[in-house]
Design goal:
3 helices, 11% strand
Length: 91
């Protein structure tokens, strides 16, 4: 409900690209990593996302399932979803 909800805060490809790099320490094999745009979270709650992650059949299924849900609810913005299972590398 912010008055700045329509303002683009970060973009790739502009004249002054500043990527945001974040490191995540994953300690459990099979952990699911989900990256998404606000186009998804405008229409699907965190609880609904967590429920689908908990019952996911595959990363593709998860992305398609969440995309379908967001579109059913009026998906009015770009909806970007990327999911994968973490694989631990032992030294």
């Amino acid at each position: 409900d912010s008055p700045f909800g329509h303002v683009l805060a970060s973009a790739i490809g502009g004249p002054e690209t500043m990527p945001v790099v974040t490191r995540v320490d994953i300690r459990e094999r099979g952990s699911v990593i989900l990256l998404c745009s606000d186009g998804l979270t405008k229409h699907v709650s965190e609880a609904e996302i967590a429920e689908r992650v908990g019952t996911m059949e595959s990363s593709e299924w998860l992305c398609r399932s969440l995309l379908s849900l967001a579109l059913e609810r009026g998906g009015s913005d770009n909806i970007t979803i990327l999911a994968g299972r973490a694989r631990l590398v032992t030294p």
